[in-house]
Structures are given as C-alpha cells and as structure tokens.
Amino acid sequence: QVQLVESGGGLVQAGGSLRLSCAASGRTFSIRAMGWFRQAPGKERDIVARIPWSGGDTTYYADSVKGRFTISRDNAKNTVYLQMNSLKPEDTAVYYCNAMHYGLSEDSWGQGTQVSVSS
Q1: Per-residue pLDDT of the chain (119 residues; tens, 9 = 90+)
Q2: In the beta sheet, which residues pair with residue 68?
C-alpha cells in the first residue's frame, strides 16, 4: 500500500502561480511513475503530467499545460511537485496525485486538492 497526501492548492488570480506537493509513504519501492490528474466539475479526470519515479527524467505533459506547468520529484523526500505558472481560469479543478506501481494494475490516488483560478 502507498499513501499519497497532496498539499498546496488554493485560490489564485489568472496569471499567478501555485506549487502542489504530493508526499508518498508506505511501499514507495513499488512506485513506477507518479503523476498529476485534474477533474473539473462535470468533466472527466484527465492527466496533467507524469514523471518516472526513478531511473529517468522523461516527463509527459498534457498539451493544455505545456510550457506553463513543471513536474519534478525529490526521491529523498518521497515527494513529487507540480509547479503551475501562468494559471488560467480553465485550470480550475481538483488536482489528484497518482502513483503507478510495478506489477499492479491498480494505481494509488491522493485525496485531491482544489485549485481555483479567478479571472
């Protein structure tokens, strides 16, 4: 079992920045990759960014956030970050931390953190 706890959400004006953090605990050795998803009201949960947990830095970003968001990790702290710059009202959503595991089909999820961007 891996537990994920997000922090760093809040309310910001358009053009502003926020940094989300996700701390992992438990069987972290089983993690293959970590990522951030978001879900706006009435919409599906979509991937925002993903990064390998170890052994590489090939990241993935959704087209909508490329050039504005940066995902990074600190393995010593078992934490993944999402730096969000130039925020837009359409970035408003609940952001969820996600962990993919070796040998398991089921991912781990955090409880979510609200990000609200006002125009």
Answers
A1: 899 999 999 999 999 999 999 999 999 999 999 999 999 999 999 999 999 998 777 899 999 999 999 999 999 999 999 999 999 999 999 999 999 999 888 999 999 999 999 99
A2: none
Place of tokens 């910001």: 12
∠ CA 25-32-95, rounded to 5°? 65
List, as one string, the DSSP characters of the chain.
-EEEEEE--EEEETT--EEEEEEEEESGGGEEEEEEEEE-TTS--EEEEEEESSS----EE-GGGTTTEEEEEEGGGTEEEEEE-S--GGG-EEEEEEEEETT-SSPEE---EEEEEE-
Tokens linked to 56: 């590489």
On whether the CB atoms of residues 84 and 91 are closer than 8 A, the answer is yes
- What is the rounded CA–CA span in Å between residue 43 and residue 5? 23
- CA angle, residues 20, 6, 94, in degrees to nearest 5: 75
